[in-house]
Design a protein that fits this description.
heterodimer; A: 573 residues; Serine Threonine Protein Phosphatase 5, Tetratricopeptide repeat; two-stranded antiparallel sheet; 19 helices; globular; B: 1077 residues; mainly beta; 22-stranded antiparallel β-barrel; five-stranded mixed sheet; 13 helices; 52 strands
Chain lengths: 573, 1077
């Protein structure tokens, strides 16, 4: 073979090789499938609006991780089990992510409950920031300035909301705005001024009245502003904000307490801010429903045969006992409240907890079998978060589990009671009494109806055989500041029980240790008779002492580790 | 192994053309070369001894050669056959019959785009004797490789058709560690490998180091397994048949571990509640009741309600009634002796210019779990043609249809986990006697009674899943054309493709017997298809210069494109369970629950490569490889990477100073260095992606309760947004090897020592949670680097006791040591991404940790410091939740409290070494073989103890633990002990094992010579697989699968050594026959 023919052959072959190879670098370009870019979203108002919608959506705490992130549920019921209102429930070993230990104060920074809450609130923060970024980009491209301002204002409200959720949990948390690129910021700064700034900015950009019930407007933002200032101890500032809400005259307590917890009547004059649940909305998992709240549904034997978490305590039941004047008693645990007409109770007890022998909404009588174990869960089922028989339901792993009941985030009664706290602290005790009485008077309007009757009846209805109801306003002027403070706090517990406030209230009032210790001392003596057997709530024996460190939860240890040393763990963990 | 003719012919052609270049004058000898069965052999080298004169046989096995004189001696060589020397003795016709040479059978190796003699290779290559594996009963060929080749480990469960993780030299990546499979040139990265019928495999080689693997550059980082399938050969048309029938059981059952007796269960329950000062469950108060469940409330055995149960009020859904079981053996209820049938038939043959092989097979494998199984039907057709003297074309085509019925999830929700969760006092059936259309009883008992946990009835789960079928149709094939441009220079264009279509159906039934019961009947279905094509074009040049320099050059260009698309739909609340309406049709369920979504994507690779091999005097070898790959998965700036490799070797035995010794017949020293890559990350990793499903981004902002307004959110953050550049993961390997043949080739030793450093490891490690829940959805980044050091040793000895008795012993031993050298970013460790778990302080997420200085997937937890014996001891240490009788953890930092700071690395799943031992023995027509494999020094995190010891969800417990609890160092059963159950050394066990993998006795039936026209070979055999295991491990099976476990079947290497109760391996007895016609 000749060299020449060799060279020619090689050249020919190489050419052929490259030709049939045929494709240049363009070959590797693969357009992204099944997704769109931020560029497209920022080119229209509807795109920016959609990002805002997804920011609201995080109110339900749903994080798209494997498994179920109950810790990020909007009502915070997992964390509220550290209060005197509820037991963790279910079975001791049914303890995903540290829930049982949270109730027993055996806390560890490693519990995934904390991680889930942390990720969920910061997902909300990031979505808010993404929305602001998109809105700014849209404005640069000539988007409607008013609409941009409104969208940014809503996003800033939500950014403050999510940060405040983190603040309630851990107090020492980092703050992120739309300009941040470093996600390992330290937590060494008080974030309250930033939240206030966000809300003040939001208030200036928000409309007076929201266009849709799920959105926020100026008064909603004022309500949150007041709450944040209240948590920060600025009673005057908080009062100013709450006064704006009250003076707007946009809100009014609904006649029947239960209307706040019935799907058909839930978005009403008392709704300041709520997570708007939906079901059978096109998501086969029911994610937009009461998705993360569902563990707090009764157990087998009930219509839901679900999970049996979040069982109200005997201590809470007793606290509904009233004296001959229809007023709360001071030593509520002196007499045990049972299902009997011999004891007079506030009718809210039977809107708050399922008691055996008492109708459970329209599901028939509550029964002991709905409780998973009296030795750690007591004898009561949660009730506020249950649907009615005819309400549509979504696809849970058990029936009756998922539905479209909203989660009340701020309701007007809450605002009135927070304002009452402020009035007490600034010395307007009579105004405080007036506010508390608004709440008490409304509570007297309706009670749980009988098994075969209407859902609600007057509190003295003849069909009520399981209790005697009474609730009256405070008749006499309030003159003692400490006593007034006690009464406002007591009312807050009765009105808002199991709605996720209690643990945070006890902390900000500085009475966590004594309250929880007193509660345990009583609750662990409670003996229930189940199926002929006496069962004591014995698991509280294993609870750890409440200490000053328990005024905040530990930051999730993985987040501390991932922060490049910038997140400092809360003291004592 | 005998019909490699054409491939060999191609290679030898090149040789002989060179050799024959200078023909001498003299007498001419001609003849025909045949193999042991008389079939003519093309491509056999014929050399005149002591001269450079040579030729090769033609397609009819004929040759003609000039010899210098009558005394000349002809040397016939052909790979796989013994070299045969024949004196001409003046004859003009010399016919020769060659006999196979067992020792050299494995000599031909398909490496990359070439076929090379093993002797010429300087890298680490293991050639697996496919005949040895043929009779093993498995659904995937990959499962057969366990322990068969040094450095190759295999992880799979006993679930028919389950995924298989093949690992070459350990784990070296956080992400993908699958080797690249090259099946007839088709690149496949697939954990299942179920489409190929193992019977179709002709050769299988494992390329372990970069000098051989890096020609595949991209994706070769984890080694390459090259497979060729059966080709025909010219001559008589041959029909072969292989058939086997097997019976399988699990190697161990849960009934060997758990309590199965109701009285013991009751006693255990009393201890559990009593030790925590808790009231007993109702069923335990007065001894076991007659009924374990009566609606509306539970009643014990003595009170009035139980005595007045009116069974006639029974209703399956509204009023189930269950009798208490005296002890249900749940494992026994859900398992069976499974039948496995495997049949294969092959027809092959051809003429000088065309050969073909057609094979068809079926495998029907029942699962040991009832109602679970795997089926595969496949057909393959391969053919090759010569057109003129320079052009050759050929094709392969394989169609497989496979179905998996009721494949159990290996997770807490899966059927296997229900077995250890459900109580033995629960009956399999309730008092209902209804049967379904197939005659099965279909109203079940379950954990409806309080304090019997949340387990589902595992039998009911299997029964209800019996029609949930996943079907895949797979077509793969290739077509090539090869043209000799000039002598020695060949152009080849080769197009390869794989098409998949799959369909899965899942119907979920109402579960009235469950405590947390499902009340609706739902159906979901998915359809999808995927395709992959690869087009390679290569130029190969071979030249031998002056009889001592061999040069071969290869250059090529390759493009690959893969894409997939699927659609999923579901509809809830079906009004009937009839499979005839298992369609997504709004009329059959609740229309507003209908949901449909689709997805898709594509990825591409573009590559150029070249390789030069040079050898001198068959003593000194050198090769250099370079490949440049571009992947669409990286951003345009980071797409391309170059992977070079070099190798040298020295055949010491070829040196003159070795000529006088006879101890070593071959002694070769090899060394290689090279880089390989890994790009197996998700598509579009670099780009920000916005999207949103109803569940993740939509919101009912208008308060409508029944519809949600469209929302969009950032679903995936791209590396660019985070200011990161993500590029190829690269592994650099140094390999030094020694090949020794000695004692007249009776003893072969192959030793390879290597170090593999992997840099820029790709992993989507969690971002800080301050980034939101995208954190677990983080983009893949170059995260870390790690080193694997190790050796692979293979020793084979062949011998005979007497003329009739022959034996062989093969031992392979492998060891690797994995160390994480660096973790980039903000910490020196990271956890794998989350999955569901139950241990309170540490999820499995945070049990398997990747930390600098330790091996990948090390276990993290507390160290155990004995048992708390007294209340006083509890006060010594602040251990939240600790109880007397519970585990005391070590306070490593002596701060008086047990917390995060006391967590330590408490174990490693990596073995000190793994081994395989093959023993073969033959006597006349009998042959016997045994195969033992094992692993030494690996640890297992026995997560199941959370259930079998700490009673997560009031699960059943290990009987051994029940008997020992509260004694020695065993924590006491205690309902209130939330501390002992935390991740600690208590879960870590020695996972070493030795298993008899295979033992077989075969008999070659002697056939009357008159039959030879009909049947030429008939062999029958009986075989056992996994007949016994020696281990101290207390769990079900120490041979753990780490392939596709977990809820999303998404757990892999990072979960190595994590036992969540995987489907145990099968013990199989097989009767087989193979015949040739």
């Amino acid at each position: 073979m000749k060299l020449k023919s060799l060279i020619i052959s090689f050249s020919v072959a190489s050419t052929v090789l490259l030709l049939v190879g045929g494709c240049g670098k363009d070959f590797l370009d693969t357009p992204v499938q099944n997704a769109i870019s931020s560029d497209i979203l920022a080119s229209s108002q509807s795109g920016v609006e959609a990002s805002l919608i997804s920011t609201y959506k995080m109110l339900n705490g749903f994080t798209n991780t494997v498994g179920n992130t109950w810790g990020s549920a909007p009502s915070n019921y997992i964390f509220n089990s550290a209060s005197d209102d509820v037991h963790k429930g279910s079975e001791p070993s049914d303890n995903p992510d540290g829930y049982y230990e949270i109730a027993l104060y055996q806390w560890s920074a490693g519990f995934l409950a904390f991680t889930h809450k942390f990720q969920a609130v910061y997902e909300g923060v990031r979505r808010a920031n993404n929305t602001i970024q998109l809105a700014n980009l849209y404005a640069e491209r000539g988007g409607d300035a008013n609409e941009v301002a409104r969208i940014i204002a809503e996003a800033k409200f939500l950014r403050a909301w999510y940060h405040f959720e983190a603040y309630k949990m851990w107090k020492n948390v980092p703050y992120y705005d739309e300009t941040d690129v470093d996600f390992t910021k330290p937590n060494n700064e008080d974030i309250i001024p930033k939240l206030i700034a966000d809300l003040e900015s939001a208030i200036s950009g928000l409309p007076d009245n929201r266009s849709q019930i799920g959105r926020v407007d100026k008064t909603v933002a004022q309500a949150l502003l007041g709450k944040i200032k209240l948590y920060a101890g600025d009673f005057t500032g908080a009062k100013t904000a709450f006064d704006v809400v009250v003076d707007s005259q946009k809100y009014k307590l609904v006649d029947c307490y239960q209307d706040n917890f019935t799907i058909a009547t839930e978005n009403n004059s008392e709704t300041v801010f709520a997570f708007q649940a939906s079901v059978n909305d096109g998501d086969g998992n029911g994610t937009n429903s009461n998705f993360l709240e569902r563990l707090a549904a009764p157990h087998t034997g009930s219509h839901s045969s679900c999970c049996g978490f979040n069982n109200p305590t005997q201590d809470l039941a007793n606290s509904y006992r009233v004296d001959a004047n229809g007023l709360p008693v001071d030593d509520w645990n002196a007499t045990r409240v049972t299902v009997t007409q011999a004891i007079t109770v506030d009718p809210r007890i039977d809107w708050t907890m399922g008691r055996t022998g008492v109708p459970y909404l329209d599901w028939g009588l509550h029964s002991d079998g709905w409780i998973r174990g009296a030795g750690w869960a007591g004898m009561y089922s949660p009730k506020k978060n249950m649907k009615l028989v005819t309400d549509p339901e979504g696809p849970g792993w058990t029936t009756g589990q998922l539905h479209a009941k909203n989660v009340q985030l701020i309701r007007y009664a809450d605002v009135l009671l927070m304002l009452a706290e402020c009035e007490v602290e600034v010395g307007s005790l009579e105004r405080a009494r007036e506010l508390v009485n608004l709440v008490r008077e409304r509570a007297a309007n309706c009670a749980q109806g009988p098994v075969d009757g209407p859902l609600t009846v007057p509190i003295d209805h003849a069909s009520i055989t399981w209790a005697t109801y009474d609730v009256q306003p405070w008749p006499d002027p309030w003159t003692d500041k400490d006593l007034s403070r006690e009464r406002v706090r007591r009312e807050r517990r009765l009105e808002l029980a199991t709605e996720g406030h209690r643990i945070f209230d006890l902390r900000r009032w500085g009475i966590l240790e004594e309250t929880v210790e007193n509660y345990r001392a009583y609750e662990s003596t409670v003996i229930n008779n189940v199926g002929g057997q006496d069962v004591r709530i014995a698991d509280l024996d294993a609870a750890e002492d409440v200490q000053p460190r328990h005024y905040v939860f530990p930051l999730p240890s993985t987040e501390v580790a991932l922060s490049n040393g910038n997140l400092k763990q809360n003291d004592g963990f | 192994m005998k019909d490699l003719y054409l491939r060999c012919a191609l290679a030898s052609l090149l040789w002989t053309m060179c050799v024959a270049a200078a023909l001498a004058q003299g007498a001419s000898v001609a003849g025909t070369v045949t193999d042991e069965s008389g079939v003519t052999m093309p491509g056999v080298n014929v050399l005149v001894k002591g001269t450079g004169t040579g030729t090769a046989t033609d397609a009819n096995g004929r040759y003609q050669i000039n010899v210098p004189d009558d005394a000349a001696v002809l040397v016939f060589t052909f790979v796989g056959y013994a070299t045969t020397e024949v004196a001409v003795n003046g004859r003009s016709v010399v016919d020769v019959q060659l006999v196979p040479d067992v020792q050299t059978l494995t000599e031909l190796v398909v490496t990359g785009y070439q076929v090379q003699r093993k002797a010429d290779i300087s890298g680490a290559v293991a050639v697996v004797d496919t005949e040895e594996l043929q009779t093993l009963v498995t659904s995937s060929f990959a499962q057969k490789l366990h322990g068969r080749a040094p450095g190759v480990t295999v992880s799979t469960s006993g679930s028919p058709g389950d995924a298989t993780n093949v690992r070459i030299r350990g784990i070296s990546s956080f992400g993908n560690n699958d080797p690249l499979y090259i099946i007839d040139g088709i690149p496949i990265q697939d954990k299942g490998n179920l489409n190929l019928n193992p019977n179709d495999i002709e050769t299988l080689q494992v390329l372990k180091d970069p000098s051989t693997a890096s020609i595949y550059g991209s994706r070769a980082s984890n080694g390459v397994i090259v497979i060729t399938t059966k080709q025909g050969k010219p001559g008589k048309t041959k029909l072969t048949f292989n058939g086997s029938y097997s019976l399988a059981n699990s190697v161990k059952g849960w009934d060997d571990i758990l309590i199965t007796d109701a009285d013991e269960y009751l006693d255990m329950t009393e201890q559990f509640f009593g030790n925590g000062n808790q009231a007993l469950p109702n069923y335990a108060v007065n001894g076991l009741p007659k009924y374990i469940y009566v609606n509306p409330t539970f009643t014990d055995g003595t009170n009035t309600v139980a005595n007045t149960v009116d069974e006639s009020t029974y209703d399956r859904y509204s009023n189930p009634i269950m009798l208490t079981s005296p002890g249900t053996n749940w494992w026994d209820e859900i398992t069976r002796t499974a039948k496995i049938e495997d049949y294969y038939i092959n027809l092959s043959g051809g003429s000088e210019n065309a050969i073909f092989s057609v094979g068809a097979g079926t495998l029907i494998q029942e699962g040991v779990l009832k109602f679970n199984g795997f089926k595969r039907y496949n057909i393959r057709a391969n053919s090759q043609y010569k057109i003129g003297s320079r052009l050759r074309i050929g094709q392969t085509l394989n169609f497989a249809r496979r179905s998996i019925v009721n494949s159990p999830a290996q997770s807490e929700q899966g059927v296997l986990s229900q077995v250890y969760k459900i109580a033995p006092i629960i009956p399999v059936y309730d008092i209902g006697t209804s049967v379904d259309e197939d005659g099965y009883r279909d109203s079940f008992g379950g954990s409806k009674t309080a304090n019997t946990g949340n387990a589902a009835n595992p039998y009911a789960m299997l029964f209800r899943g019996r029609r949930n079928v996943n079907i895949t149709n797979n077509l793969m094939g290739s077509a090539y054309a090869e043209f000799d441009l000039i002598t020695g220079l060949t152009f080849k264009t080769d197009f390869k493709f794989e098409l998949n279509s799959f369909n899965g159906k899942n119907f979920s039934y109402r579960t009235p017997e469950n405590q947390e019961n499902q009340g609706a009947q739902n159906f979901s279905e998915n359809w999808g298809n995927s395709s992959l094509w690869t087009w390679s074009n290569t130029l190969a040049y071979n030249k031998r210069i002056a009889d001592s320099h061999n040069i071969s050059v290869l250059a090529g260009y390759e493009a690959l494109r893969g894409e997939f698309r699927n659609i999923n739909g579901s509809l809830n609340n079906y009004f009937t369970t009839s499979p005839d309406i298992w369609y997504i049709n709004s009329a059959f369920g609740a229309a507003d629950t209908r949901q449909v979504s689709s997805n898709g994507g594509e990825n591409k690779l573009l590559s150029m490569f070249g390789k030069v091999d040079y050898s001198f005097m068959d003593k000194y070898y050198f090769s250099a490889t370079v490949r440049r790959d571009g992947s669409s998965r990286f951003s345009p700036e980071n797409r391309f990477a170059v992977f070079p490799a070099f190798a040298v070797s020295w055949r010491i035995s070829g040196e003159s100073f070795m000529a006088s010794q006879s101890l070593f017949s071959d002694l070769k020293l090899r060394a290689s260095w090279g880089k390989t890559g890994n790009e197996n990350i998700r598509n579009y990793n670099y780009a920000d992606r916005w999207g949103g499903t109803v569940g993740s981004a939509f919101y009912a902002i208008d308060g409508s309760n029944g519809s949600a307004t469209t929302g969009y959110h950032l679903t995936n953050v791209g590396t660019e947004t985070l200011g990161l550049e993500t590029k190829w993961e690269e592994a650099t390997t140094v390999n030094v090897g020694l090949d020794i043949s000695m004692l007249n080739d009776r003893l072969d030793i192959v030793l390879d020592v290597y170090e593999r450093k992997t840099e820029d490891l790709l992993y989507n490690a969690a971002l800080p949670g301050t980034f939101g829940y995208l954190a677990p959805n983080a983009p893949f980044r170059n995260t870390a680097s790690m080193t694997n050091k190790g050796f692979d040793l293979g020793i084979t000895y062949r011998g005979s006791f007497a003329s009739d008795w022959q034996y062989s012993v093969g031992l392979n031993v492998s060891r690797y040591k994995n160390t994480i050298d660096r973790v980039d970013g903000i910490t020196d460790f990271f956890y794998p991404n989350p999955t569901q778990g139950r241990i309170d302080n540490r999820l499995p997420t945070e049990i398997n940790i990747n930390q600098v200085g330790y091996s990948i997937s090390s276990f993290r937890g507390y160290r155990v410091d004995g048992i708390y014996r007294t209340e006083g001891e509890l006060d010594e240490l602040d251990q939240p939740g600790a109880q007397v009788g519970g585990l005391r953890f070590k306070d490593l930092n002596n701060d008086g409290a047990i917390n995060d700071a006391d967590l330590d690395i408490i174990g490693s799943p990596h073995p000190d070494f793994t081994y395989g031992l093959n023993i073969g023995l033959s006597y006349k027509n009998f042959d016997f073989s045994a195969f033992i494999f094992g692993s030494q020094g690996n640890e297992i995190f026995n997560y199941v103890k959370l259930f079998t010891h700490f009673r997560q969800f009031f699960s059943n417990v290990s009987r051994d633990y029940y008997l020992k609890n509260g004694t020695g160092n065993e924590p006491r059963l205690n309902i209130l002990d939330t501390s002992s159950r935390q991740a600690s050394e208590y879960y870590v066990e020695d996972g070493s094992y030795l298993r008899l993998g295979q033992v077989q006795l075969g008999y070659n039936v002697p056939l009357p010579s008159s039959w030879s026209n009909v049947v030429s070979k008939l062999k029958v055999y009986v075989q056992g697989q996994n007949l016994f295991t020696i281990t101290d491990y207390s769990g079900l099976d120490p041979v753990l699968s780490n392939a596709n476990i977990g809820d999303g079947r998404n757990l892999n290497d990072i979960w190595t050594g994590f036992d969540i109760g995987q489907y145990p391996s099968n013990k199989i007895v097989t009767f087989g026959i193979s015949a040739e016609f």
